[in-house]
Known about the structure:
Layout: E1 9-17, E2 26-28, E3 30-34, E4 38-39, E5 52-56, H1 57-67, E6 84-87, E7 99-102, E8 107-114, H2 123-128, H3 133-136, E9 138-144, E10 146-149, E11 153-156
Parallel strand pairs: 5-6
Antiparallel strand pairs: 1-2, 1-6, 1-11, 3-4, 3-10, 5-9, 7-8, 7-11, 8-9
Amino acid sequence: MSGAAAGKIGRIVSINISRKKGQVKTPVPQAKVVTGEGIIDDAHRAFGHRQVSLLMLESIEEQAARIGDKGKIAIGPGAFAENLTTSGLDLRNIKVGDEFVIGGGGARLKISQIGKECHTKCAVFKLTGDCIMPKLGIFCEVLEGGMIRVGDAIEKQ
């Protein structure tokens, strides 16, 4: 079975950043990822072991269909404050310690946490009507930095 067929290779469909934590993120066409820190111009840069967050577009679409028009904003990439929205890469079958390469080896991420605890109903929850990051969000440390772009391949190693 090839990597693509096994859900090991996908694409970055959106790169999302925000200046403050707990906010919906804004899509950008490209970003610089810094080793041991995260994405330049993002509020979660240098945020311990949760430097970059990932969420599958497929999960966002399922949530949008489930919530319907109950939220205050349209649900799409960046709505759940994820940095990287992926498509085609099955993030449901990964574990802490797994690694991803983005853009043919330019950047390397290591899974440091799956899901998170939300202590309060943050701005994302209030705007979307629900948040899937506590269960489906993937958090990474940056092992190797580099430029990443929308459309880049992301591959589980």
